[in-house]
Design a protein that fits this description.
It is a single chain. By secondary structure, the chain is of the alpha+beta class. It has 2 domains: 220 residues, Rossmann fold (3-Layer(aba) Sandwich); 113 residues, no CATH class. Helix content is 23%, strand content 34%. A 6-stranded mixed beta sheet has the order 6-7-8-3-9-10, with helices on both faces. A 5-stranded antiparallel beta sheet has the order 13-12-11-14-20, with no helix packed on it. Helix 4 packs across helix 5. The longest helix has 18 residues. The structure holds adenosine-5'-triphosphate. The site of adenosine-5'-triphosphate has 12 residues, from strand 2 and helix 1. This is ABC transporter ATP-binding protein. Keywords: ATP-binding, Nucleotide-binding, Transport. GO terms for molecular function: ATP binding.
Length: 359
């Protein structure tokens, strides 16, 4: 459906997109994730035809789009600030696209009613958009983007303005809506939770380049680099030297999964793999802080200051969370240890020679 071949966009000295290759299959939902300034919006704009590429090609259904104006590309775009027309009512907003395409009045009316049903606003056609809540406006914007039946729907921070509860609900609704309609979606967000809930595939951007692409599970389980891991909120990263199924790290020798690449690398230990023990067992640490995360499991993040090596984050239940200031021991669960390939080593603490052997 969509293919980007080596697309580069420069703004003066700054390269917003750097030779990006990307494919989106029909009926697929792809979420582009990345920190502010990584090039996400530029990617959408170049596909929509709102931004010229300095190099490379954008193909839609196999056709090169250079020279094709935005309104001829058959893509729908929904911006983060909805950009509804305040002087038109809900139906007037949703009908905008079909009218532009000269769809007849009866057919437009049918489509508007159907879309308002789909987005959970049945019979709201006559309401003023200025009198709607943020979440309702978001739904109208979505119905408006879907109305011309675009072959590709692009969403820029679709749920950015909404509060957490509404976001979590809408993300589930959107996913099932896109499934039902068979819509092909390219969405942009800086929120990995939102991307993972919505996407069949996620693409993580770093400085105009694709740092990693894969299913949400693949990216979550095997972040490709320290950058991706940190972006996903993982901070337990250390330089390491792997030998067999053990690694020398800043936290001492730890067990690693079978098949871990040998030699010098970066290792990530997910917080769930940092197991708390009595102080005389494993790596001795001081409990520096605890942060209650809520959720069904009453999760607590425990920040630990090891007597040697970089800081560590452990995840445990509220019941098991140690008091701040006390000493604990830490052992590592090898199933939660991941080697980061292509890692930017400068991002981690320098390798330190472990003083003793631990597991
Ligand atoms: N019109 C422009 N003129 C100059 N520089 C621009 C322009 N648009 C984007 N940039 C620069 O290109 C880079 C990528 O911007 P882009 O808006 O694509 O990032 P983003 O990942 O969408 O960020 P955000 O999450 O903050 O929206 C940034 O460094 C930005 O400052």
């Amino acid at each position: 459906m969509l293919r980007l071949d080596g697309v580069t966009v420069r703004f003066g000295e700054r390269t917003a997109l750097d030779a990006v290759d990307l494919e989106v299959a029909a009926h697929e939902t792809v979420c582009v994730l990345g920190p502010s300034g990584s090039g996400k919006s530029t990617l959408l704009r170049v596909v929509a035809g709102l931004q010229q590429a300095d190099a490379g090609r954008v193909l839609l259904s196999g056709r090169d789009q250079s020279g094709v104006p935005p309104h001829r590309r058959g893509v729908g775009l929904m911006f983060q600030d909805h950009q509804l027309f305040p002087q038109r009512d809900v139906a007037g907003n949703v009908a905008f696209g079909p009218r532009m395409h000269r769809t007849d009045r009866a057919e437009t009316g049918r489509r508007v009613a159907e879309l308002l049903d789909l987005v959970g606003l049945p019979g709201a056609g006559g309401r003023a958009v200025t009198a709607l809540s943020g979440g309702e406006q978001q739904r109208v914007a979505l119905a408006r983007a879907l109305a011309p039946e675009p072959k590709l729907l692009m969403l820029d921070e679709p749920l950015g303005q909404l509060d957490r509860g509404l976001r979590e609900r809408l993300v589930v609704e959107l996913r099932s809506l896109f499934r039902r309609l068979g819509t092909t979606v390219l969405a942009v967000t800086h929120d990995h939770g939102e991307a993972f809930a919505l996407a069949d595939r996620v693409v993580v951007m770093e400085n105009g380049r694709i740092a990693q692409a894969g299913t949400p599970l693949e990216v979550w389980q095997r972040p490709a680099s320290a950058f991706v891991a940190r972006f996903l909120g993982f901070d337990n990263i250390t330089a390491a030297t792997v030998h067999g199924e053990r690694a020398a790290t800043g936290w001492g020798h730890i067990a690693v999964p079978q098949g871990t690449p040998q030699g010098s690398t970066l290792l990530l230990v997910r917080p769930g793999g940092v197991l708390l023990r009595p102080p005389d067992e494993g790596l001795r640490c001081t409990v520096e802080a605890r942060t209650f995360r809520g959720g069904d499991a009453s999760t607590v993040t425990v920040l630990l200051r090891p007597h040697e090596g970089p800081a560590l984050e452990a995840a445990c239940t509220l019941r098991d969370a140690p008091e701040e200031g006390i000493e604990v021991g830490v052992v590592f669960d090898p199933r939660e240890v991941v080697a980061l390939h292509g890692g930017d080593r400068a991002d981690a603490e320098p390798p330190t020679e472990p003083v003793s052997s631990r597991s």
